[in-house]
Amino acid sequence: MDGIHASGEAILRLSVFTAVFMVMALAEWVAPRRPLGHGRGRRWVTNIAIVAIDTLAVRLIFPLAAVGFAIWAETREIGLFQILGTPGIVAGIISFAVLDLAIWAQHVAVHKVPVLWRVHRVHHADVDIDLTTGIRFHPIEIVLSMLWKMVVIAALGAPPLAVFVFEVVLNGMAMFNHANVRLPARLDRMLRLVIVTPDMHRVHHSTEMRETDSNYGFNLSIWDRLFRTYVPQPALGHEGMRIGLEEYQSEDPTRLGWSLALPIAPLDRRRRSTGSGGQPAQ
C-alpha cells in the first residue's frame, strides 16, 4: 500500500472516479428514474466545481489524506489492531465495516446537530438528484468528515489498504446511490438487502421531514435497518416526491456562490425553530 500511495494513489482514485462517473452518467441517460426539473447545465457545473474545491481543501489541509494517515499510524503501531496483532484480512474487513458505520453516524449527526445541519444542507439543497448530488458537499463538511475518519483510523489501527478500498468504494457508491437511474424492481429489492440503492437513498432527499430523517447509509444498508431509520419508499412515489429543501425550491442552489455561502445564510422561518431532525436550530 505504501507504494500505491507514494506513486499515484490520487491518480488511481481519480481514474476510478472518472470511470464510475461516466458509467452512471450513461445509465442515467439510458434509464432515467424521474425527469429532472432543473436539468443538468449549471447544476452540474456547480456540483463538479464544489467537488474540485473539496479535493483542493483536503489536499491542502491534510496532505496525507486518509490513506497516508493510515500508513503513518501503521508505521508507529498506533491503534487497537496494532496492539492486538490482528491478522491483516480480519483487521481489514472489520475496519471497512466500522468506517462505514462511522460515516452513517456522521450522517445522522449532521442532520441532528443544528450547526452541522447548516453545512450539510448544501447537499440537500440540490433541487434535483442525480450522480452529481453525490459529490455535492460543502468543503467544511468534507474537512470535518476527514477529521472524523482519521480519529476512527487511529483508534482502530486500520490497515492502509482497507482505508484505500473504503475511500474508493464510498466515493463510487455516493455517485451510484444518488444516481437518477431506474433499476428493475426485483434487482433493487435484492441489492438493498446489502447495499444502498438509488431508490433507497432517494427517499432521504425528499422534502418531507420524516423521509429526510431516514436512509442515512451510503454503502451498507444494514445500519438503517438495525437502528430503525429505514423507510422503503417515499409516500408520494419516486415520480411524485419533491426533492431538496422546501425553502429552496428555486434556481438558487444551482449557483456556486450561493451554495458555498449557504452555511452562513439565515435559516428560513419554517426551519428557524427546528433543524432537519427536529433539534433547535442556531
Q: What does the overall shape look like?
A: globular
Taking pLDDT < 50 over at least 5 consecutive residues as the criterion, the unreliable ranges are 269-275, 277-282
The number of distinct structural domains comes to 1
- Fraction of helical residues: 55-70%
Main location: membrane
Organism: Tepidamorphus gemmatus
Keywords: Lipid metabolism, Membrane, Oxidoreductase, Transmembrane, Transmembrane helix
Protein name: Sterol desaturase/sphingolipid hydroxylase (Fatty acid hydroxylase superfamily)
Annotation keywords:
single chain; 282 residues; mainly alpha; 15 helices; 0% strand; globular; disordered C terminus
In short:
The chain crosses the membrane at residues 12-32, 44-72, 84-105, 146-170. The chain has one domain (2-272).
Q: Explain this structure to me?
A:
- Helix 3 (65-75) packs parallel to helix 7 (139-156) and helix 5 crosses helix 8.
- It contains 15 helices and no strands.
- Residues 269-275 and 277-282 have low confidence and may be disordered.
- It has one domain (2-272).
- The chain has helices at residues 2-30, 41-61, 65-75, 80-84, 88-112, 114-124, 139-156, 160-178, 185-191, 198-202, 209-212, 222-226, 237-240, 256-261, 269-272.
- The protein is mainly α and 282 residues long.
- The longest helix has 29 residues, at 2-30.
